[in-house]
Amino acid sequence: MKILLKFLALLLxxxxxxxxxxxxxxxxxxxxxxxATWKSLVEQFPANAEFTIVTYTRPSIINSETGPSTxxxxxxxxxxxxxxxxxxxxxxVGHSYGGLIVTEAAQQVPDxxxxxxxxxxxxxxxxxxxxxxxSQRISDDDALLKQFLPEPLKAQYDVLVRxxxxxxxxxxxxxxxxxxxxxxxxxxxxxxxxxxxxKQGKQxxxxxxxxxxxxxxxxxxxRSSQFGHNTHKEIAEQVAQFIHLLNKKIDK
Length: 252
Fold this sequence. Notes:
Layout: H1 2-16, E1 23-28, H2 39-42, E2 51-55, H3 59-62, H4 71-83, E3 89-95, H5 97-108, E4 115-119, H6 126-146, H7 151-165, E5 180-185, H8 199-212, E6 219-224, H9 231-234, H10 236-251
């Protein structure tokens, strides 16, 4: 009789308890950044059974002799990382250019991704919109930015600019059933160095991010002037809290 009761109790646990699903967080860094850029944010996730942390540096940054990579090559590299993951859930976290890579990977393999966190993401159509407002300013910004880039990254930047300039002005929205957390800085610099830091630039930046999640059924859009572009460093603790929140939403 005791054995039968134990068996029934175990059966009830199996039938009615909700399994704890393991989650892999894959972090995609911004333009020219290696995996060390995630240090402050990764430290918010102490080693435990809840998350598996995956950070990496894109091959074109590790070895500049391979030449610059295209957006498509970087997206495919991330997709291969996703396919190598064995956990039940996958959340992608992307900053700036890494946000573009995460966005396009999620659009290509939506069935393999459970949620994404976008930190000040680049949008494919952004240069088309920026140039429509002030083409000369964008050209001047390109020249200014390249003064600060090492030679290998100058070539990488040229490839990126060429691809973005050839993109459609229409912003492709994320899959509607994909849960999203997106951070947009509305911080306007008193002395802006680049167009994106001006009032007009910030308005367009926000509009692009809104278009990106226009079809999303589950979206948290954090908009604030209290942080700048490097969200993952400036407000790492808050970003981590939203990652935890997203993970819980996916469990429901």
